Amino acid sequence: MRRNPHAWLNWALPLITVVAVLAFWQAITVGGIVSPAQFPTMSDTMGALAGEVASGRVWPAIGATLIGWLIGMVITIVLGLIIGTALAFNGFAQRSAAPVIEIFKAIPAIAILPLVILVAGSTLPMKVFLVCFAAFWPFLIQVIYGVRSMDPIVLDTARALGIRGARRFLAISIPSSSPYLVTGMRIASAQALILCIVAEIVGGAAGIGRNILLAQNSGVVAYPTMYAYIIVAGILGVALTGAFFLLEKRVMHWHESQRNIRASNVVGAA
Amino acid sequence: MTRVTTSLVPTVRPRRAKSGLRRLGQVLTPVWLPLLLIAVWWFATANSTSPFFPPLGDILVDTWNQWVVFGAWTNAVVSVRNLLIGYVFGTLIGIIGGSLLWRLRYLRVAMNPIIYFLYVLPAPALLPAMIAIFGIGDMRQIALIALGSIWPTLLNTLDGMRGVDTVKFDTAKALRLGGWRTYFRLVLPGAGPQIAAGLRASLTVGIVLMVVSEMVAANSGIGFFILQAQAEFAIKKMWTGILVLALIGTVLNYLFVFVERRALRWYYRSRALGSS
Questions:
Q1: CA angle centred on A135, ends B28 and A187, rounded to 5°
Q2: CATH assignment at residue B140
Q3: Which of B185, B87, B200 has its CA nearest to residue B145?
Q4: Do A14 and B109 make contact, defined as CB atoms within 8 angstroms?
Q5: Count of domains observed in chain B
Q6: Are A110 and B34 within 8 A, CB to CB?
Q7: Domain carrying residue B133
């Protein structure tokens, strides 16, 4: 393997940028270009973040958001796999269901948020229902596409070997369509996290979103705390999406798009 | 990420059936289930006394009264206007930014963590910060929508451009296409399908942000209307808002698919040829 003289840039450049952005944030807030009433300084925000972590207040918020995300995702994935596979194997059912799926996917999940709040209150079931409503439709579409893209030879082989029913579902359908499924899960996960935060900000359910809004409501003094929780929300997003990206890379490493991206990721390769 | 599918609507027109009965079947297949669901909704709530689920007929009558007779439609106009302005700004920044990052390899490596963070950060979490910065008003709505819709478009533009086959660049070089012509003739169309997927994701995010920001702090707009009705416990009025919002979301999405099909007709056609 040829040694790349610029390889160190791959980790040094991102690091430098992050430090530079943080320094820039500190400079404009301390320098008075942006008033502290609008934007707290970086050091105050990091201090607030450290304070929230040290006092332990941050963990229940993360837990409340994550549990809503998790339950919603599990329901979405189980229902999506079963219904999606069933629809993909039957042309008539799929053509009949397509417009319904399209319409429900187009309805923004927050449209029904006030109704769900009235029926269920500011509770975990409210959050889970919204998460499912937002994440289910995009995932379902990916499942249908994934199962339909299966190699017909694989299906014929399975039929010849007498594999059917639940075993076909678990041993043939799911592995064959896994690249689509993982992508669908990543999309659903992003939607689910957004809806968790929305349910907390608008619906007042416990979690990171509610803490952000509470901090904003308690005035300028609490602004560092507000940004601290926004950063926490971002870190949560990085962790969840990153996990699905890794999974995607593992199951799709043979795919052409991944090869091109890997090749062009290397600095100074061309 | 080429496996992101945007729509279930068939991209290839089905072959015309020969017999009349077959044709009738083709027309009825996509229609019967939505009609059945609406009918079920209608009859299940026809004599409903539940405060949360008023009869569908009453909701429809009330929708006409609230939105046309009493003039609530101005709320919808304000919402959609803010959405469109923010969306156009955000996606333009996304496409231009994505192109720049594609061209400038070092910038891409450098900016990667920042962009990734902003992309995965759930955009509604920024809402309270935007209230603090911009106050309450249309400016804040537009800024938030624009900020949220940048990232899906930007990342999809970048991925799409990086996915363009290297052989095609060699061809462009052999044909002595200049830098800009290579960009407009090869890179932009080549990334087109993926950019469209990004634009659609941005639209979804934009609609969510539009409604959320109106629900939390605003004095006009469709989200404001719905939450106001909910606070007054005017359930029927709230349902009319939900119905109108659902209608707006559906219409915008179908409009998007329509434009996408037009703009990417060459792509769908070549794909249909390849699969047959």
A1: 110
A2: 1.10.3720.10
A3: B87
A4: yes
A5: 1
A6: no
A7: 75-275
Q: Write the residue in A37, A95, A212 that is nearest to B29 by C-beta.
A: A95
Give the residue from chain B lying closest to A194, CA to CA: B122
Q: Which residues of B touch A202 (CB under 8 A)?
A: 212, 215-216, 227
- The yes/no answer to whether this complex scores an ipTM above 0.95 is no
* Mean pLDDT for the stretch of residues A229-234: 89
Q: Which residues of A touch B253 (CB under 8 A)?
A: 102, 105-106
Q: What pLDDT is recorded for position A79?
A: 94
Among chain B residues, CA nearest to A243 = B120
Looking at the domain that runs over A52-254, which CATH code has it been given?
1.10.3720.10
Nearest by CB: B3 against A106, A180, A202: A180
Q: Taking the CA atoms of B45, B46, B49 and B54 in sequence, report the sign of the dihedral they define.
A: positive
Give whole-number Cα distances, A91 to A83, A236, B26, in Å: 13, 39, 12
Closest residue, chain A, to B222 (C-alpha): A111
Instruction: Give pLDDT tens digits for A93-126.
Output: 888 888 888 888 878 888 888 888 888 888 888 8
Residues 126-165 of chain A whose Cβ lies under 8 A from any Cβ of chain B? 141-142, 144-146
- The answer to whether residue B264 is domain-embedded is yes
How is residue B264 written in tokens? 């990417």
Judge: A100–B211 Cβ closer than 8 Å, yes or no.
no
| pTM (two decimals) | 0.81
CA dist B22 and A86 (Å) reads: 24
Name the stretches of chain B with pLDDT < 50.
1-3, 275-276
Half-sphere exposure of A78 toward its Cβ, with a 13 Å CA cutoff? 6
The reported pLDDT for the residue numbered A211 is 86
pLDDT exceeds 70 at position A1: no
